[in-house]
Design a protein that fits this description.
This protein has about 350 residues and is of the alpha+beta class. Helix content is about 30%, strand content about 20%.
Length: about 350
């Protein structure tokens, strides 16, 4: 049987240099995050960060290859494994533990997010302290911080563009700087270093075998281009059939999004879809496994959001509620925004 050709989506690409030059990105934001967009945008020409990217992605592979008893020292059951190392703790939609990937979670802004013990007890997934493998892998913390600092900069840039776009689209009803100022006040953003283990045959048969279909819940997600390594740790070309895939909002096609190593990708989450009154749209996505089980996949996702106490209130310029919460071609089992 001949394998079906991989359909590739065409993401909107903008230049960091053009942003600094004050270019108008109204059309680009509309095409990327409007009703027919992929819910993401690619940023090119960002000042060189390849050393930081490689150091961070190799660091998570190094950690994943440590003995199990060593990795267990850096887990945090109190936060439901939302800080430090997590492997096999999350579950796929089928209820089966997710053994395909391991994650190392940390807050990129501060090691101690709050001294308020009541907040730590009420929201442990957000407010626990960072955990670092200082004795067993001391370079992981620095590598994480160096790369996430670059991702934070891009995240703030995109939020500024959202503000400009919504201000123009709503005839000034959306205040300039609103999203950006609220995002900068947030202290609970989370970085997630991801190591995808060599995929067993059962995983490769599933359409979303490495990371199931979902929508990000927060504001925006900033992703590095993944690094693919063979079992000896040597970088290899990205497999054609593996990677980030999107449900196209126009016709429901599943399309692959390819990201050059020198670019960063920004995806919209459900909360920004809601808080923009539906003028910005998120899309369902997954990570497909490859049929070749002899390599690993490394990447770093940074999730940025407002403070948890921020009210989820539709703006005056909102589209009708039914349009705001609608996500076309939502895969089976993925909760709707109003669910």
């Amino acid at each position: 049987m001949v394998a079906a050709a991989v359909q590739t989506g065409d993401p909107v690409i903008i230049s960091y240099a053009d942003f600094n030059a004050g270019e108008d990105f109204t059309t680009a934001i509309s095409q990327a995050f409007g009703k027919e967009g992929l819910g993401l945008i690619v940023v090119k020409d960002f000042p060189d960060f390849q050393k930081e990217r490689e150091a961070a992605l190799r660091a998570v592979r190094d950690f994943a290859n440590l003995p199990e008893e060593v990795k267990e020292r850096y887990t945090d059951p109190v936060s439901n494994y939302s800080f430090g190392w997590s492997h096999g703790k999350e579950k796929m939609r089928s209820g089966v533990p997710d053994m395909a990937k391991g994650s190392y979670y940390a807050n990129p802004l501060r090691n101690v997010i709050t001294e308020d013990q009541s907040l730590k007890e009420q929201f442990p997934e957000l407010y626990q302290d960072n955990i670092w493998p200082s004795e067993d892998l001391p370079h992981l913390e620095g590598a994480f911080r160096d790369m996430t600092s670059r991702q934070l900069e891009v995240g703030y840039m995109i939020c500024e563009l959202f503000d400009r776009y919504l201000h123009k689209k709503t005839g000034g009803e959306h205040p300039l700087g609103l999203f950006l100022s609220r995002l900068k006040k947030g202290i609970t953003c989370k970085g997630r270093l991801l190591h995808y283990f060599p995929a067993p045959p059962a995983t490769t048969k599933s359409e979303d075998g490495l990371c199931g279909w979902h929508l990000d819940h927060g504001g925006i997600t900033i992703l590095t281009c993944p690094m693919y390594l063979n079992l000896e740790g040597k970088e290899i070309p990205a497999p054609v059939d593996c990677g980030l895939h999107i449900k196209h909002p126009v016709d429901g096609r599943v399309v692959k999004v390819e990201l050059p190593p020198d670019c960063l990708l920004v995806q919209l989450g459900e909360s920004f879809q809601y808080l923009s009154g539906g003028h910005l749209r998120a899309t369902a996505h997954c990570v497909k496994a490859s049929a070749k089980p002899d390599f690993t996949r490394e990447t770093l996702a940074l999730f940025m959001d407002w403070q948890p106490e921020q009210a989820m209130k539709l703006p005056n310029y909102s589209l009708p509620y039914s349009e705001v919460v609608n996500t076309p071609f939502l895969p089976e089992g993925v909760p709707a925004l109003d669910g």
